[in-house]
Amino acid sequence: MSGFVTPELEQQAISWRRHLHSHPELSFQEVETAAFVEETLRSFDGLELERPTRTSVVARLRGARPGRVLALRADMDALPIDEATGLEFASRRPGVMHACGHDAHTAMLLAAARTLAARRDVLAGEVRFVFQHAEETPPGGARELVEAGVMDGVDLVIGGHVASDKPVGRIGAHAGPFAAAADSFSAVVRGRGGHAALPHETIDPVVVAAHVVTGLQSLVSRTVDPMKNAVVSVTRIHGGTADNIVPEAVELGGTVRTFDEELRAAMAERLERVLRGVTGAHGATYELDYRYGYAPVINDADAAAVVRAAASAELGEDALIDVEPIMGGEDFSAYLARAPGAFFWVGAGGAGAIPHHHPQFVIDESALRAGIAVFVRTALDFLA
Q1: What is the CATH number of the domain that holds 228?
Q2: pLDDT for 291-308, tens place per residue?
């Protein structure tokens, strides 16, 4: 295990993580979280602090000599979930929970900042610690920080995410697609309401919506190259008020996930084509709101190699694991649009663990050691 992560530093990181876990805040509301991060960073020597937005913090550590600029990012927001873990440090805010590990990400980056601040004299260049708000809610905090200039002059950007389904302390950092573009849609199917006993006098939007859902399920299987990845999921549908009334309209919505930008645009067109064709065939009409979310996270090959080399050097070659791209979304892609970079997994659980975004989500806190070590060694190597 890394010599950078002493038992004292590990316990400090766990303490920070537990404080954050107890005091979660939703996207764009991370006022107390940002204040805690800023106060903690001020206790380290040599950092220049900025508040690019109301609920984000950026710290700059300038090395003893000029050189390249490395950005390290952690997200800080929680989710609208009632915690059911029974932990002593469980959320004190009803309906809000760190159910994705952002508390761990923030704690790891705070520990990395403390460690690197004490090694400023060996750095050639700048480390920019980015504590980001609102990863969970589009349009996301990353875009706001990029617009605020946080990525100006950055040569490499690195981010990490704990994973409850991967062995504790293992690191996954592969080149190429990491997380998918996360787009969403809402649609209204409008028919003609009436008495349920006289369906011939109506245009039943429930039946039409059912055909729309069936049609959308064939988009991937029958219009997408089997060698490419795509997901279309209808996740909500609502219509009607009583058993004997055919409603005027039915609302439905869901998500579309892709990696390829050309396919991404095509899926939006194909989805509307299904809506247009099915509603037209039944004499109904439709309204569609298609929202482009986060772009796909595509790891730069050289950047991923830097992370893998750092993990191997600090944790041993056995710590590296092969991982597959996920169809989940991540606004880390906003940083990658401005500089090469890589996003990596930090194993924090294992087989059978509770998944992310679940009321009983937990991590093995010993995973923090690995994340801290990778951040620190990446910085020392890149800015040697």
Answers
A1: 3.30.70.360
A2: 999 999 999 999 999 999
